[in-house]
Amino acid sequence: MQERLKELQTEALEKVSQSANLKELNDIRVSYLGKKGPITEVLKGMGKLSAEERPMMGALANEVRDAITSGIEEKQKHLEEAAVHEKLAAETIDVTLPGRPVKTGNHHPLTRIIEEIEDLFIGMGYTVAEGPEVEKDYYNFEALNLPKDHPARDMQDSFYITEETLLRTQTSPVQARTMEKHDGKGPVKIICPGKVFRRDNDDATHSHQFMQIEGLVVGENIRMTDLKGTLEVFAKKLFGEDREIRMRPSFFPFTEPSVEVDVSCFKCGGKGCNICKKTGWIEILGSGMVHPNVLEMSGFDSKKYSGFAFGMGVERIAMLKYGVEDIRHFYTNDVRFLNNFQVHE
Fold it and tell me: Does the keyword field hold Amino-acid biosynthesis (predicted)?
């Protein structure tokens, strides 16, 4: 039995030294040290030994097990290190090779216009206000001096969901909601960017969904000159320092007086070209002094408070600034179009 244990030790260690990978090594471990291995079989015959021989044989069996286990562990360590070195050699990176370019995203031109306008007005003390796109008829029309059956409602063909709810046709409801929250106490100084919806046939200059930015200032002694000065700063910031504006009388139910605002053509400088249709001026927004009825319905004393409001289509501003001829380009997600606005910082 003693000789057999020594033979098993020599045999096992020889196979361990010749093993080429971890799988072979594990097979040797199971074969010799497992419950069904030859060492276990030898030890089953210890019952035939005398009482004096059993301790000696048990100690020898443990020595054989330990020797084989040590040999396997040593070989395992060597094989694992060799595997790591082999993997590192196979995965060597040539750091002198040029890197692959990483394609990065970019702000959409409409987002860029909105952020540029927001930055301008925030710098002038305005805050950005938001409201729901699914709006109540009251805030979309009635609170803006457009009661039921008012003929001016026909100016905006609306998407109604129920008799009292619709997709907002303008961001003006945000102004009404904000004034209502102030409980008749000024000042109010906000801009309201967001999506609006109108039933319209999509073409190069019209869309059933588009973006608006409106502004509102309410306080004591607010005058038309304040509105003009604000819009002059806006026009120069967005279209160039040498731009001028002009105001033309118009009509909006929620402002009185109301004006359309034009900016001097940034291509021809006012001389007349195809962009300004030979007039030297380009219409950019509508504005006016807040109608006293709108102030009163929002809880403000129209004898104490006055205000001005203005509104513009973001797509129109973007089309003018970037020379885009078709509004639908903004919504087709054509990468070739969007790449024209790539910014490299």
Answer: no
